[in-house]
Amino acid sequence: MKLNKPFILGVTAASSGAGKTTLIEKIIPALIKENIRVSVVKHGHHSFEIDYPGKDSYRLRKAGAYQTLVLNDKRSALITEYAENPHSFESSIQRMDKDVDVILVEGLRQSHYKKIEVLRKDHSDDKLFLKDPNIIAVITDGSFSAPIPIININDTQAITHFIITTLKNA
Fold first, then answer.
1. CB of 165 within 8 A of CB of 156?
2. Do the bridges between strand 114-119 and strand 102-106 make them parallel or antiparallel, or are there none, so unpaired?
3. Which residues of 45-67 are buried (b: 16+ CB within 10 A; e: fewer)?
4. Which entry of 97, 118, 128, 165 is 20 to 30 Å from 60 by CA?
5. pTM for the whole thing?
């Protein structure tokens, strides 16, 4: 499929626990089945570690390496330390493979990229789409009206179709 690549699509919600990860987990295989190459960015609000004390990569990073690339013949992880200045999403995205069709971004609700909102009927009454013009669809298990498409959270095929149509029209 010929697309403007990569298209960045946020998956957002008013609060944690709404099902963003579960939704992304369901749509990745559906998109791959349609020959869409997918990357994911998981935004975290807290510090995280992907290597641990005692591992060589950890020791080298703690010795002061700005970047540490851990790799084997099946996968790699680039760890970059931002000691003084917070790192921007845009500069991180530039480090990702450009040969993907879509980058799904979990979180980063304040970003200016197009987003789909996960809105659960028993989770939150806060409808982000009312305040954010970059939200282009609501994925929900509830029933309400909105000026943008509303797609049932259990209809993976409809969600996938919406995303593919969005990619084609980008």
1. no
2. unpaired
3. eeeeeebeeeeebbeebeeeeee
4. 97
5. 0.85
Per-residue pLDDT of the chain (170 residues; tens, 9 = 90+): 555 679 999 999 988 889 999 999 999 999 999 999 999 988 766 566 677 888 898 898 889 888 888 889 998 888 887 766 666 777 777 778 888 999 999 977 788 899 999 999 887 778 999 999 999 999 999 888 899 999 999 999 999 999 999 999 98
Q: Taking a C-beta distance cutoff of 8 angstroms, is the pair 141, 164 a contact?
A: no
- Max CA-CA distance within the chain? 55
Amino acid making up residue 111: S
b/e per residue 133-148 (b: at least 16 CB within 10 A): ebbbbbbbeeeeeeee
Encoding tokens for residue 140?
């929900």
Query: Can you name the residues that pair with 67 across neighbouring β-strands?
Result: 80
Look up tokens 């500069």; give the residue: 91
Class of domain 7-45+86-169: alpha beta
Dihedral Cα 44, 45, 50, 53, nearest 10 deg: -170
